[in-house]
Amino acid sequence: MIIQPRTRGFICITTHPEGTAKNVHNQIEYVKSKNITEEGPKKVLVIGASTGFGLSSRITAAFGYNAATIGVFFEKPAAERKPGTAGWYNTAAFEKEALEAGLYAKSINGDAFSDEIKQQTIDLIKKDLGQVDLVVYSLASPRRNHPKTGVAYSSVLKPIGESFTNKTVDFHTANVTDITINPIESQEEIDNTVAVMGGEDWKFWIEDLKAAGVLAEGVKTVAYSYIGPELTHRIYKDGTIGMAKNDLEKTVPTINNLLADLNGVSYVSVNKALVTQSSSAIPVVPLYVSLLYKVMKEKGIHEGTIEQMERLFSERLYTANGNVPLDENGRIRIDDWEMREDVQKEVDDLWKIVTSENIHEISDIKGYSDEFFQLFGFNYDGIDYEADTNELVEVPSIK
């Protein structure tokens, strides 16, 4: 079928298998070009492995350190004349290249919050790998069915306290407007968001993996977070999502206690603002990111997800001396270049003057839009989007 991009708000509802394969290939080639020589993970579980930071973590582990990887995710496969999700095609492309390189790569598709998927994962580790030495937790979901109580929780994206008004951009039209977001109506909205996006499920995974004996001596586990600049704090850091991320960070000591007898350790990595399916849904953030990209590209320090994850692994998690640099709150800060004083000063200056009339001149809104569509396999050079393509792509390890 011929597959063209079709959008509904901040979501692209079509995906192109050849484009997503190119995205995965480009990331693989980047990691291989780094010629990583330090020792690193050998058997890796990535929970939330099909897109964004999770996908780039899996690629870095496999093609940077020759690690065997198991990926867990919830994606929709293709049906005749109906493309699969981007994460499905990403995984198909990743597994194909991993197998061609002689690397072990298998995947599990299902609700990672459920006990059933946790058990399937444990069974696969026992059967094929024995144990894993790195667990990456990179789930991004708006809903969660609690595996113990059966209660369904939905997260909300709201400020706490007063309404929040600031600039935002429709990255499809480059129209800059003000947006007002009403605050939470009850504590329950915070609690629900924490239940979906906080640290409880990460803890459940580590508890179950440890009880099953599939965590190796010296195991590491890392979950991902974001803080961002003051101008986004009301909607992010100090809003409902921020409360969930605080809960994620509070889970670290609990997991460290769980892993103590294995000499294991857990971390939260604070990553850079990037174009992801999740970040595109957050008002204010797309405008901030388009300005940030402009500044960081001009300074030669721009990174995408793969550059971030390669640096996280090689300069933080697996350094030559074994030391993992942390901030005063015990977090890994791979957002260090984004939060540099000179970068934030320039972004703040641009924020004050950006309008619909000058956005193309003073921001990288085109780069933002291109990256958004590339998440779904579009806007890549060398691909004929007017030609027929086979939508029925299978993930080799999923029958």
UniProtKB/TrEMBL annotation:
It comes from the Bacteria. It catalyses: a 2,3-saturated acyl-[ACP] + NAD(+) = a (2E)-enoyl-[ACP] + NADH + H(+); a 2,3-saturated acyl-CoA + NAD(+) = a (2E)-enoyl-CoA + NADH + H(+). Keywords: Fatty acid biosynthesis, Fatty acid metabolism, Lipid biosynthesis, Lipid metabolism, NAD, Oxidoreductase. GO terms for molecular function: enoyl-[acyl-carrier-protein] reductase (NADH) activity; NAD binding; trans-2-enoyl-CoA reductase (NADH) activity. One of its GO terms (biological process) is fatty acid biosynthetic process. Gene3D superfamilies: NAD(P)-binding Rossmann-like Domain. Its EC number is 1.3.1.9. NAD(+) binds at residues 48-53, 74-75, 111-112, 139-140, 245, 274-276. Residues 326-388 form the Enoyl reductase FAD binding domain. The active site is at residue 236. Pathway: Lipid metabolism; fatty acid biosynthesis. It is an enzyme of class 1 (oxidoreductase). Residues 82-318 form the Trans-2-enoyl-CoA reductase catalytic domain. Pfam families: Eno-Rase_FAD_bd (PF07055), Eno-Rase_NADH_b (PF12242), Enoyl_reductase (PF12241). The record marks 75 as: Plays an important role in discriminating NADH against NADPH. Residues 2-79 form the Trans-2-enoyl-CoA reductase-like NAD(P)H binding domain. Substrate binds at residue 226. Belongs to the TER reductase family. Involved in the final reduction of the elongation cycle of fatty acid synthesis (FAS II). Catalyzes the reduction of a carbon-carbon double bond in an enoyl moiety that is covalently linked to an acyl carrier protein (ACP). Monomer. This is Enoyl-[acyl-carrier-protein] reductase [NADH]. It comes from Chishuiella changwenlii.
